[in-house]
Structures are given as C-alpha cells and as structure tokens.
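Appendix C reproduces, verbatim, an entry submitted by the partner laboratory led by Prof. M.T., so that reviewers can inspect both the input and the predicted structure.
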Amino acid sequence: MAGHSKWANIKRQKARVDAKKGKTFTQLSRAIIVAARNGIADPDGNFQLRTAIDKAKAAGVSNDSIERSLAKGAGTYQDDDAVLEEIRYEGYGVGGVAILIEAFTDNRNRTAAYLRSAFTKNGGNLGETGCVSWMFEHKGVVTVAAVDEEKLLEASMEGGADSYEMYDNEDSADVFTEVANLENLNQTLQKYDLSIIDVELRWIPNNNIEITDPEQERSLIKLLDTLESLDDVQNVISNFDMSEELIGVKS
C-alpha cells in the first residue's frame, strides 16, 4: 500500500501543531461527542468512543471535560444546543494534489465558506464529494512500539491485518487492516503483549504526487496549515510528496 512511510513522516513533522492545546482539546472533545452520538454513550460497547476517550486522556484532557463531552453526545447536557455533524470535504491544491478534510461542525455553510476561502487564497479549489476520495483507502491502523518482527508478523496474521510497516528511526510500526476489523486487530495485538501507541481510522493515499517546485511546495504547506488551523477541522490528509531536494532545503 503506497503512502505509509510518507504519511508517518508528515505526521511526525506536523506534531508541533499539537502544541496548540486549545485546538487539540477541542478536536478531542468533538471526537468524543460525535462517537457517543453515532453509537451508544458507553465506551465499553462503543470502540470508536473508547478510542476517542483514550486519546483525550493521553493528551491531558480533564475528566470533567470528557464527561461533559459524553453528556453532549448522549443528549443529556442541558446547556448546549449545538448539534455537531461529521462531514468530509474534498479538494485540490496546486500541482493537482488531492486533499481530504474531516470536520465536525454545527454549521456546514460556515465551514464550507471557510474551507473554500482557504483553498482559493492558496491556489487550490474545494471540490464536490467524491472528487478525490477514490485516490485514498480508508484503513484501520494500530501503531505499536518497537517489537521483534517475527512476533509482529505472527500477531498481525492472527489479527487479520492486511500489512504492516516498521519505522527503524522511530522504534515503532503501523499495522493496517480493514476498518471493520480494527477492534479485533487491536485486541489481538494486546494479547501478544505489544505496546499500543495509537489506534485510529486513517485515509491513506494510493499514490503520492511529488512536488519539486519550491513555490508550489510553499503554497501547499500554507494551505494545509491554514486548513488545520480552522476550528471545525479535525484532520487534513493529502497525497502531497515533498521531493528529496526540497526536504534537504527545509532540514
């Protein structure tokens, strides 16, 4: 599956964005609200909700905030009339780079206007649903700490994984599976006493577009940063592949 390593590298490069705690906490809280609303408001019976709560706790979100988000998702929180919905937007950046945006919003017209403005100001355009999603695969991904590859292979096969990729420099590995099998894979890897770092659903590009022009690269970076800074945006995924020459210039 193309795009594993590049996505992992980009994720690590963008980790500095998580220092913006206000937005990070908002994203995590909204993920809990939507997960509770889409299923049952009980983490024991809702894998998506349990994963969202685990991520919130790992990021330092208080128990009170988590309980409040649960109540909002369950519809029992009396002081909030906003109804969040999960929406995926799609578009193109310069150079034909495909971009997916996952958003939680209580006003889709507002969100679409902000996204359209961000694309327009940075040489891209917001498209129709389905215009680029066919270029990606939606996968369940479990990230584990460094482990013996033979043990990882055995656990992955038993858990029904499609593939895995080890990252030598990061002492970790990503294990990929179908979305519906994510909980089973996670439980199987835990059964093998593997240390779980993260569990998530991830859009992975089938092919990457390499950008070699510095001006286009700067426009894309600015567009992705602008999209990620918007309050309604949860995740931004693209098939943008920076050339080795540009990586050398930036490092």
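The chain has three domains: 4-74, 86-134+208-250, 136-205. Additional entries are available on request from the coordinating office.
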